[in-house]
Amino acid sequence: MNASRYGRKSVADKLFLFGELTLLCLSSWIAILIHNTSHVVVSAEASLINISVFAATVMLCALSVGLYDHKLREGHKGVVKRVIITQVFSTIILQFIVFQVFPSVYISALYLLCASVIAAISVSLFRAFCQMHDINRISRRRILILGAGKRASIIERRMRRNVDRRDFEILGYVPIEGDEEASIQQNRQISLDYSNNLFKFVMENKIDQLVIACDERRNKLPVEDLFKCKTRGVDIIEILDFIENETGQIAVNLIYPSWIIHSNGLTSNRRFRTSLGYVLNVVLAVMLLLFTWPIMLITALLIYLEDGRKTSAPVFYKQLRVGIDGSPFYILKFRSMKTDAEKDGAQWASKNDNRVTKVGHYIRRYRIDELPQLFNVLKGEMGFVGPRPERPEFVVELAKNIPYYNNRHNVKPGLTGWAQLKYPYGATAEDAQEKLKFDLYYIKHRSLILDLVILIRTVEVVLFGRGR
């Protein structure tokens, strides 16, 4: 359990992915058979290539719209909507990019249409079947929480929804001597002589994992029984690591200094942080500028026509932000608010802020206002992925009230980040603390693969207007 839950796949997850991959391959194969009935027969080699390319492209697009989000909170209608969007995206990518670059693998428009329709129907039905029959139950872990006080109640609060517990079942909470009074319901508590009978109880109830969540551990835990459980294959995990694995965040309110020192991760790969990271970011920025310059040009024109022509208000907006190691820099954005938006001083932006202009409403919704930050990336002040940079005025206050807040400045700020994927729109100090939990998780697990996953899934943030 040292590895992150977000980096592991349960048996159910593997079966689900294999099933969906099989359906996509079958959809492509059936579409090829349909094509062969009225066109030139496609060779076996070309068929295999197309089946592989189609399946890989669809699964990549599915990842980008959140269909492989472990905690996706969507009903069947919402899932079907995302499946259709996935097929539209994959069709566009295959028809106008992949098959244009590799024309030798192109079959026909009929093939692509049939494959996409069959895939959309079969995947939607497959996901409905998995949801109806709860496929995750085949590998769901049985968990016992040692503790029923203040720390244990955090698990109860944060994992109260079914989707939060899709991979495990909490058998109950064992009160431990020294626990503070908390809100764990009496019927969720297990009366157990844990000092003498913990091992027996764990074996009899087939417990897979013990979570240490008591408020006072010194001389309170049955070390001998825990050791026996460990030797029998029962996983024993701290509450901090449990929350990190299951939620993709680090509970800053539970952190203690020794955990930071001894915890895996939180080390900086200097090559990734400097030279290699900068080169990759510059290449991505140049590529994105080549695709988005028409959008940026139209946006600048619309802002100018709305109020810039009459008032000479600027199209762009520069604002001081805090970067890596606390160094200040000016972030560049398209202006989305009125020019007197901060006449009363620095303010948090809210979801339905009346300071936002008409054009600003749309460019903020689809993140178009962030595109000029590509020049911040080229200057090396930002990366594509990282914690969003905050204003110095807010940083000073947040650092006073939120423990470990300044640790988010240990990496370069980004255009998008883990917190933007995992947390809805937030504009308060409380939201900042919640986002910090995700930022610290990102800093701890930072890697090229995680950055790529975040970049791909940012499509979902833009499409469905999630966290900012």
Question: What can you tell me about this protein's structure?
Answer:
This protein has helices at 11-38, 44-64, 76-101, 109-132, 150-158, 194-204, 223-231, 239-247, 257-262, 270-273, 275-311, 358-365, 374-378, 392-401, 418-422, 429-445, 448-464, and strands spanning 141-146, 168-174, 209-212, 235-238, 316-322, 328-334, 383-385, 414-416. With 468 residues, it is α/β, with parallel strands linked by helices. It folds into 3 domains: 5-135, no CATH class; 140-247, NAD(P)-binding Rossmann-like Domain (Rossmann fold); 270-464, no CATH class. The protein has a 4-stranded parallel beta sheet. A two-stranded antiparallel sheet has the order 5-6. A two-stranded parallel ribbon has the order 7-8. It is found in: Membrane. Residues 279-463 form the Bacterial sugar transferase domain.
